[in-house]
Amino acid sequence: ECKLLMIFSSALSVQCFEQILSTCRKKYTDLVTVYSDEDNSALTNLINLINDPTITAWIGLNRNQSISDKWSNGDDFTFSNLTGVCGSGSCCAAMKPDGSWENLQCTEKRNFMCYKRGVY
Predict the structure, then answer these.
(1) What angle do CA 87, 88, 89 make, to 5 degrees?
(2) What's the rounded Cα separation, in Å, for the pair 46 and 16?
(3) Which residue pairs, CB below 8 angstroms and at least 24 apart, start in 99-107?
(4) What's the sign of the alpha-carbon dihedral 71, 60, 65, 15?
(5) Which of 48, 60, 99, 103 is the most buried (most CB within 10 A)?
(6) What is the secondary structure of the chain as a DSSP string?
(7) Tens digit of pLDDT per residue, the chain (120 long)?
(8) Are residues 30 and 3 in contact, defined by beta-carbon separation less than 8 angstroms?
(9) Ranges for the C-type lectin domain (predicted)?
């Protein structure tokens, strides 16, 4: 299925995970999900269009230590490019320009990537 991917990287769009989840669902479909190396490469290319080696962007992975990891759209978490460990409580994942994902507290503010289903 085709998807339109959007990345947001202005000062106005740097938000915590819950805020951006709401924004993506209102204006698009959801935060991006990553199911394969191919998806990860496409998103890495997208994030590198910003041309800032320090940028990170939320993806749709929410890691709750008491339940299994899930994508924000409800899909099971089967592909990972995570680095580091999640501390206690809930962590969310942000993609870095090298394609790896970092575990962060969901309250941290980051850029983000949304998709709109059915458009490419």
Answers:
(1) 120
(2) 20
(3) 99/40, 99/41, 99/43, 99/44, 101/59, 101/61, 102/56, 103/63, 104/56, 106/16, 106/17, 106/18, 106/62, 107/16, 107/17
(4) negative
(5) 60
(6) --EEEEEE-SGGG-B-HHHHHHHHHHHSSEE----SHHHHHHHHHHHHTT--TT--EEEEEEEETTS--EETTS-B-----EES---SSEEEEEE-TTS-EEEEETTS-BEEEEEEET--
(7) 444 556 554 444 677 888 888 888 988 888 999 999 999 999 999 888 888 888 889 999 988 766 678 899 989 888 999 988 777 677 899 999 999 999 998 888 888 888 887 654
(8) no
(9) 24-115
